[in-house]
Amino acid sequence: MEKLTDEELYLLLGRLTGTLDAEEAVQAEALLRDHEQARAAYAELSAGYAKRQGEPAWRDIQTVTTRPAQPHYASVRPMTWRRWVAASAIVVLSSVIYLLWKQTNDADSAAARLAAKPGIELRLITGETIDLSAHRGTITVGDIRFANTDNALSYTTGESLGTVGNNTLTVPVGLDYRVTLADGTEIWLNSATRLDFPVAFKGGTRDIRIDGEAYLRVAKDPSRPFFVYLPDSEVEVVGTEFNVNTYDEGTERVALVSGAVRMQARSGDVSSTGPPIEPIALMPGQQATHVPGKPIGVDAFNAREVLSWREGRYHFREATLEEISRVVPRWYGVQVSIDDPSILGRRFTGVIDRNQPIDVFLEDLKAISGIQGKLDVDGTLHFHE
Q1: Element (H, E) at 361
Q2: Nearest 5°: CA angle at 156, between 122 and 126?
Q3: pLDDT exceeding 70 applies to what percent of the chain?
Q4: Is pLDDT larger for residue 142 or for residue 158?
């Protein structure tokens, strides 16, 4: 029997649960029209889904079957029909996480007990600090006019503050933000991310620094290359779109969407055998991963998993509770402690909606897997069975 790919399975599940966007819905309809195996699979999924109505909606994948973990940045690969039949009921359950997490929660929730989150902060080279979450509209500082509207910042300026030094924009946990630089480059910043940038670019290059995660659409200017400096590497580009991620300590990732970039380890970094690490040129669809002291690795990446944060969603597939727990602090502003080591390796598949409160997540996690999460008075979330 023909193979059903993960992408095709995603479309069938999305159609069943109503979570597809308009383009994906069209793809799902075409799949059902043209693919006999897809129609049969959808019928079986629908029957399994109907039987689960009113029962706990998703649960730990490993309580039913054990499968090898997918590589962290693997491309979508085909799943055999037999594996799919064995896992279909489980994936149906896990796919409705997205629906559950969009429920309206009670006003008296765990999230309401959290301290107020800090705002988006812009610190200028003059030392002045602006709370962009509190001050909207036009903000004038010297000869710079900032336009802070629709969760985005743009500006016009004279020369005085753009000559020397960087300004720093900090996006706290639970928020995101967009910045348009002086050259027209657009940068989308994920939560817990810092951007250092000059108000005006001077000289023969355009240099910025990023720590966290950001998506960049770089304005083309062949005469002035654009450099993104990460904590332990740098990315050179003329004009392109790509994602950078330094969330995991000691690991930096660059995923290229269009154009071309080159990733270079910091000067003096050497591999375990001694020779300098060579720079890596990427093609669209490729992601480079840099760990200090090791050669830069290149793999294909799943755009839905890597880039969906811009839509306020985090897709995870067969992710461990430990991996999911690394996202929770950035999106909900809490520290996480997994008190029971035996639950670290449990795996889940689904989508987290960042706009939903944390107590909805905790209630569903308990109903699904028996894993309980308790938020203490210090703002630490404890997971245990």
Answers
A1: helix 358-369
A2: 40
A3: 75
A4: 142
